[in-house]
Amino acid sequence: MDHKQLLASVTYPSLQGPGIDPNKYGTPTSGLETILSQVIGILTIVAFIYFAIQIILAGYAYISNGGDAKNIETSRKRLTEGVLGVTIVVLALALSALIAKIAGINNIFDLNALFNSMGLN
Q: What are the domain boundaries of the chain?
């Protein structure tokens, strides 16, 4: 048995792990679409939860401050920032959806359709 036959007879274990299967989510653009959609969805939920907690805590501090002017102003500022944060999150989602609609993208994260319309299959 020469060295070529010896190397050909060796069986190698299959590779496993993250990144090994490039078509796990379908095409590369649909994989990117899925990942972006999940990340933005999770970040949006986290932002809503954070700002809702801030609004609740600021409201509680406003009610229970005992009439102290400094605490009232601090609580009012926190409440305003919480409402402003929720408003920014909602407006960011609405604005991105509007821009996507104007650009002709039905689903904001449908990268396959976007690349196909640009001729970048």
A: 27-117
For 1-68, where are the alpha helices, taking DSSP H only? 3-8, 28-63
Q: What is the distance between the alpha carbons of residues 49 and 91, in angstroms, rounded to a whole number?
A: 16
- pTM score: 0.58
Alpha-carbon distance values, 21 to 11, 14, 47, 119 (Å)? 20, 12, 32, 26
Mean pLDDT of the 31-54 span: 81
Q: What share of the chain is helix, strand, coil (3-state, %, to 5)?
A: 70, 0, 30
C-beta separation of 61 from 75 below 8 A: yes
Residue type at 98 in one-letter notation = L
Contact 61, 71 (CB under 8 A): yes
How large is the average pLDDT for residues 44-64?
Answer: 89
Q: How many Cβ atoms sit within 10 Å of the Cβ of residue 41?
A: 11
Distance from first CA to last CA of the chain, Å, rounded? 48
Task: Write down the mean pLDDT value for the chain.
Answer: 77
Surface-to-core class of residue 10, CB atoms within 10 Å of its CB (0-12 exposed, 13-18 middle, 19+ buried): exposed
